[in-house]
Amino acid sequence: MILLWIKSQDTFLSTEVKKFIETVTPDLTQIPSGADYSWIDRDTGIAWEKLEDVFDNIKEENGSKAWFFDAIKQVPPLFRECYHMLQNVYPAAYDALLKPFLEWTHQEKDIHLTIKQISKESTSGDHLVALLTITAIVERALGNVVLLKCKQVPFLLRDLLATPELEELIGKVKVQLLIVMLGSVLGLNLRNIAWHGFLSPHETSQAFVATIIFILADCGRMLEKTNKIKNIPCRPHVTFDEASCLGSVFDNMIIPRKAVLEEVIMNSSFVPIVMYPAWKKALELLEEEQWGLCVTLLLPLMECSMRAMFAHVNKVSERMLTAENSTLYTTMDEILNEYMENSTTSQTVNEKDGKYEFSSCSASVHNLGNREHCEVNKCTLSADGIEHADQEKNRELDTLEKKNQVQYTIGTKLNEALHDLLTFIQGPRIRDRVSHGEAKLQEIPAFITCHILYLNLLVLSSGGPDIDEAPSGTTNKMQCMNLKGLREEYALNAKLEGKTLKKTSETKCLEHGPPPSDEACSQDKKCTNDSCNLSDHGKEVIGKLRRNMNDYKCVFHPSAILHRRLIHAGSYISNWIQWDRVDSSELDYPEWESWDKIQLPGAISYPPLHISHNVCSLHNMEEFLVLVKNIQYKVLYRPKQEVELISILQRITVCILATLEKNHENMALKYSQYINKRLRSRQRETYRRQLTAVPVIVSSCYLTSQVIYLIFLAINKSGDLSQSSFTSLMKVLKPVLKVTENLVTQTSLSVNRWDEASSLSVNNIDHIRKEFTHRQE
Fold it and tell me: Which among 202, 418, 408, 404 is positioned nearest to 303, based on CA atoms?
């Protein structure tokens, strides 16, 4: 089924933003002759003095909304000349006139590629990927420049452009122009509207890219004149080594044929036709194995489609558009949130003369300090001030509808995978890193690109709530709009690839895209998502992706990381008895022969969480590892108390692992030195004390791991603890953390305080016995 109001959306720019873009987009058919160039000097540099006069002569208050609009009206001639001059210079004079002044960015090869992407033979998809690439390059390069005078680089481009040090280094007018183009919501804001998936290919002018390239070249000239160009530091780009595990999620997949990918894209309700050229370009880059460039398109395309889903399932269709500068955009962060923003609007899509219009009914929302208790103010009070039962019921339903319905549309597993990829702090955060220029495009691995592609396909084929997950009372069924009688009338208002579509039935490919058939869109057709309209091959691909996603296990949430570390610690402990050591008779340390006599509690419990656990014997570590591996836990939208508890458990586990690793390495080194007779008498005594202490240290670490397992079993109940109970639990765990931190220090090669480490371990065992064994129900 197809949602025509989404498919036919010809722009995602709200009225004011679109007006800005239309105002600033020059007519590139007007080709200036040599004498007509007034904004570009003979050295192919921008006439900055002329631009400074233009900005200074704006009568409005500098930095005001009116000032930005006046500035925007002045720059189209500059943009046009930059584009045509670049076409004149490239390729014949590029090496002499531009290349030397772009090398300071350390990304001249990528800039060279963007120039090719805005050539006369290029497509609108090329223009969008060029703009995405060049904005990331600008942010990274200017951040390096700022390090000449600052110790840190601001995370956001707008903050970077606001630093006085940057203005001092490259000049005020250059910064002003960059702010007008990229760095302010009052200006064009090209960086944000492109990277967040609002800017469609036909709204992306090659002149934007060309102007930014000339700005970078002029920055290079100025830095060279001031002898600073050789001192610009080059921050290392990030790698995605930590994300290598994601390569196994779809490791049984072969990239589907282009025709199958096109079929999924064109059959999805969440891909507006105006975005087809961008998808077409993304698939071309995929075929060419240009993994990094492909990612730069897949990320904003995903955000655009998910925003369409968000607008539809939450009935807030106006959120498809960018907000004005007084309101935040609807970006991926909100799309993946559990709850909607406090101010909600109920939307209806109405058809009129073949076009679709939005009508809305606003609702005010009370914030009671907890989003779970936010209520839509539809209920009224009776004359005596008492709410009737049916009014209370309505209020409960309204509260339920405040939940963001996207989570039920895509399902828990896909939601977790998206958070792993995009938002969790210890994950790859691919969207942030690529868009801010932190990643080198040529070094983005194929598995990352394929992973993003497959998640995109799963998003596009999501069409209805998971019956097992959606709460009762939610209504997210896709409304199929019958296209009968509209196919000949329907036409895009925008130009795609330089052509206006007059009859959508004539379109056959992703450049413009065919309209859905009556059969595919019949309201009588019983299907819950767009994938039912696919061919058998398309259904097979989506089915295989879904089966893989059903087995997905979160990787980068703190709970998932804690889980892996606890398993790792258990594996380390299971092998401790095999660690290399000299025979006990040689150095007189009987503790290893009687380690199993160390008294550990037989059971531990924590009644406030209603949990207990029989402590597994060190002889039977496999049993404990099986228990740990089978722990089940939730990772999305967790309460603050649970996050704090996971944090302290993580810190304890990290210390346990460090202690075990240090002991293992230390023992291996000492054993090698001993058998090679390289230990003096004092060092042999230290080695003996170490061997004496290790069994009790390991036992302490093991019992602590059992406590972590105990609490982890009930981790998703910890948010329900009263504040006093939660505070008590944290007070119990803090001494355990302190002990494990001290063990890391005292067992290091440089310290070797084994008697103190042994004493600490005994005290820790006693503390756990006291706090986790006497509270029996």
Answer: 418
Element (H, E) at 362: strand 355-363
- pLDDT(518) > 90: no
Report the SS3 class of residue 172.
helix
Cα–Cα–Cα angle for 137, 140, 145, rounded to 5 degrees: 120
| pLDDT tens string 35-67 | 778 999 878 899 999 999 999 999 999 989 999
Is beta strand 355-363 parallel, antiparallel or unpaired with respect to 365-366? unpaired
Q: φ, ψ for residue 614 (rounded to 5)?
A: -80, 120
Nearest-angstrom CA–CA distance, 162 and 182 = 12
Instruction: Report CA dihedral (590, 594, 595, 599) to the nearest 10 degrees.
Output: -130
The span from the CA of 496 to the CA of 505, in Å, is 15
Q: What's the pLDDT at 420?
A: 97
Number of C-beta neighbours around residue 392 at 10 A: 10
Q: pLDDT at position 329, please?
A: 77
Q: 375 in helix, strand or coil?
A: strand
Candidates 709, 270, 719, 317; CA nearest to 530 is 270
Closest among 66, 83, 25, 179 to 494, alpha carbons compared: 25
Give me the half-sphere count of Cα atoms (radius 13 Å) on the Cβ side of residue 201: 31
Q: What single DSSP character describes residue 443?
A: G
Beta-bridge mates of residue 361: 346
The residue count of the chain comes to: 777
75 touches 102 (CB < 8 A): no
Q: Is the dihedral of CA 570, 575, 581, 583 positive or negative?
A: positive
pLDDT of residue 325: 67
d(CA 455, CA 288): 20
pLDDT tens for each residue of 551-583: 999 999 999 999 999 999 999 999 998 999 998
Q: What angle do CA 549, 555, 556 make, to 5 degrees?
A: 130
CA dist., res. 482 & res. 549, Å (int): 32
Q: Looking at the predicted structure, is the pLDDT value of residue 107 above 80?
A: yes
Does the structure show a pLDDT above 80 at 90?
A: yes
**Per-residue pLDDT at 510:** 58
Yes or no: say if 437 and 137 are a contact pair by the CB < 8 Å rule.
yes
- CA dist list (Å): 700 to 20, 424, 659, 666, 759: 66, 32, 11, 18, 11
How is residue 2 written in tokens? 């197809």
CA angle 729, 735, 741 (to 5 degrees): 125
CA distances from 650 to 653, 725, 776 (A): 5, 20, 26
Alpha-carbon distances, residue 303 vs 69, 383, 490, 651, 739 (angstroms): 28, 48, 25, 34, 46
DSSP result, 50-95 = HHHHHHHT--SPTTSHHHHHHHHHH-HHHHHHHHHHHHHHTTTTHH
Q: Read off the amino acid at residue 77.
A: P
| Three-class secondary structure assignment of 250-270 | CCCCCCCCHHHHHHHHHHCCC
User: Can you spell out the DSSP letters for 285-331?
Assistant: HHHTT-HHHHHHHHHHHHHHHHHHHHHHHTT-GGGGSPP-TTS----
CA distance 39 to 48: 8
pLDDT above 50: residue 599: yes
Over 80: is that where the pLDDT of 587 sits? yes
Gap between the Cα atoms of 419 and 637, Å rounded: 11
